Amino acid sequence: MEYVIVIYPTNRFVYIDGEKGGITNDVLRVSEGTHEFDLGNLKNYKPESQEVVVQGTTVIKPLEIVFFKKDR
Amino acid sequence: MGPRVVSCIAILVCALLQAACGTFPANPPLAKYDKSAGYRFDPLPDEADKRDEMFVILVFSGGGTRAAALSYGVMEALRDTRIQWQGQSASLLDEVDVISSISGGSFPAAYYALRGPRIFDEFPDKFLYRRVQSDLIRSALTPPNWFKLAGSSFGRSDLAAEFYDREVFGGGTYADVIAQHTRPFVILNATDLSTGAQFPFIQDQFDLLCSDLSGVKLARAAAASSAFPGGLTPLTFQNYAGTCDYRQPNWVEKAIKDHKSRLNASRTARADRRVAYTQTETDSKTNAVQPSRKYIHLTDGGVADNIGLREPLTAITSENNSWSVLTRINFKQVNKLVVIVVNAATNPAIKRDRTPKVPGLRDTVATVAGIPLDNYSFETLETLRATVKEFNNEMDLISGCKDLAANKGPQCTLDIPTPHQIEFFPVEVAFEYIQSDEDRNWFKNLPTSFELPRETVDRLRAVGRQILGEDPQFRKLMEELK
User: Residue B332: is its pLDDT beyond 60?
Assistant: First the structure.
């Protein structure tokens, strides 16, 4: 088991490999390997998606994946 | 009679024989892939859903009528177990979300999917007390069936499927199961003979073949799941890959990327297996695009996993699964996860080691074929225990860190964000947990057969209930649900 936390200023759905996988700012359990993270179709955030190799994390040291609000 | 007339008669006889020869009933093609249609687990709800707060998975192993009766006994016990849940009194059986089954265990599972609580009035006489094995042999020896069996694409399991369809499942198809819109989601598992991979009867798997599971009879699924190698033949399913605009889920491409880095090899293997079903090639003569594997041959689910636990373990530990429990946990929808494994494995007494005689070929081959399966079953159960431990260790680690920091002084208090915590109840119903030596040995020496004496079936039903009630994790769960 691996652990990630997708950081974003507000709470919204996290999509893992194109499927709903959790909520931003929660520690999420994921399987080891390459995954793509995004925040859904409302593209008011950046980057659009992040492909990340998730490995070697622990529950007390989850991988942080940061998304930002897009400037208007 | 001239040679021409003889030839004509010969051709006519051959044509008649050919017509009489059986061929497998093809699974229907899927017109267009639709990831929300067909026999699938409920989609993840957008709103908070309390239904999954306690997520219960039942797992029925293989083992012929022995497994069917033991599983049925556990179902009876769950039906009779009243719990207090979400302010109401309910039957624990009604809270079961998923059943995953193998071989003999697939019969009560499929029957429950089709007939719901009516299983308790109908199933014992329709299956458990029936001399199914004798009926199957009699059917194969009936002259009209000789012609059917003479066909190269119709085997003894096709005949068995016809028997189950007629005598047990009453023509029921997956469309009938879908129409009920109810849980549990029942997964009958067979084994792909060519790859050795588990083949679950769910639409997510049939999507790969561009085939519509709703048109498949439960009898064929049960027959494939229980096609014990040797006694019964594999069952053939047609692959229509490339005809329904199917798209693999995104994770498949990512997992294949991990080949080089050797990260999560089991995920990559699952991805590879999915891709293998969908590969197509162009016929050099007709230029028609066709699946590389036009036909899929399925044998007993026990060859890949005789417990039926591998598919649920993937759902518990991976988000890349069509009914991922892990995702539901991440969404904080699951607070209690209950996995009840009904394992009808035996361990017959062996006389071989009482003599210096060199074991014979038959004894050696039969034993050698079974040992890896038993070892794999052991490892599968160990994986369940390791998974439970992994979930439990998370909280131990976090609280350990917090305690260590707090010991340095109040200014060192840690605020560690934690994943959603669940209570995991792994329950195991197996003969090895029977207290009495005499009883345990008696059950562990039962044969694997599709017919057992009525009193043996009754003892299996009763012992299933007894072992469940004595399981420490089950007792703990009951304490909490009082």
Answer: yes
Name the CA radius of gyration of chain A, rounded.
11
What is the total residue count of chain B? 482
Cis peptide, bond prior to residue B184, ω within 30 of zero = yes
Mind listing the pLDDT tens digit for each residue in B296-330?
999 999 999 999 999 999 999 999 999 999 999 99
Chain B residue nearest residue A21, CA to CA? B327
User: What pLDDT tens digit does each residue of chain A (72 aa) get?
Assistant: 999 999 999 999 999 999 999 999 999 999 999 999 999 988 899 999 999 999 999 999 999 999 999 876
Task: Kindly state the helix (H) or strand (E) to which residue B164 belongs, with its residue range.
Answer: helix B156-167
Whether the complex's predicted ipTM is more than 0.90 is answered with yes
For B139, B148, B164, B236, B357, the CA distances from B152, given in Å and listed in that order, are 18, 9, 21, 11, 41
The Cα–Cα gap between B326 and B330 comes to 6
Determine which of A15, A28, A34, A55 to mutate to test the interface with B (most B C-beta atoms within 10 Å): A34
Mean of the pLDDT values across residues B69-84? 96
* Contact yes or no for B136/B73 (Cβ under 8 A): no
Mean pLDDT of chain B: 91
A 37-56 residues inside an 8 A Cβ radius of B: 51, 53, 55
Residue A60 to residue B397, Cβ atoms within 8 A: yes
For the whole model, what pTM was predicted?
0.93
Distance CA A5, CA B141 (A): 63
Q: Which residues of chain B make contact with A33, given a CB cutoff of 8 A?
A: 254-255, 258, 263-264, 267-268
- In this complex, do A22 and B250 lie within 8 Å of one another by their Cβ atoms? no
CA–CA separation, B345 vs B77, rounded Å? Answer: 20
CB distance B297 to B47 below 8 Å: no
